[in-house]
Task: structure prediction
Amino acid sequence: MPARSAGVLAFRRTADGLEVLLVHPGGPFWRHKDAGAWSIPKGEFGAGEAAETVARREFAEELGTALTVPLVPLGEIKQRGGKVVEAFAAETDLDAGGITSNAFELEWPPRSGRLQRFPEVDRAAWFDLAEARVRINPAQAALLDRLVAIGGG
Result:
């Protein structure tokens, strides 16, 4: 069975139009990657968890902000490698420069025997839809279309 995740495509309306919040994964593998590397905040299901519960938890863990607004289902997408992501839209606003992400440990450099801590998300940013399409994981781009289709844009 493929891995399952749930996440939130946060959006806000500005004088210049719709913007979406994307996060950049932390750690050495992603350090120099940009186009196609950004994502919605998301994480894997625990045993018996509901998708909305997972989406809210992961948003809080990756951004350091609890999400209290209603979530609107955007459906599922399948990423390369088979992971299924169930997504929700949420209209909200937050300071992307002030996020605080949880961390993970990784042996780095490889085979060095040294464990280092890295943030799960090293930065977040608001993007207009055109720029978001360049930055987001290609499999997640369909979520941008779905947001527009439900009236987010």
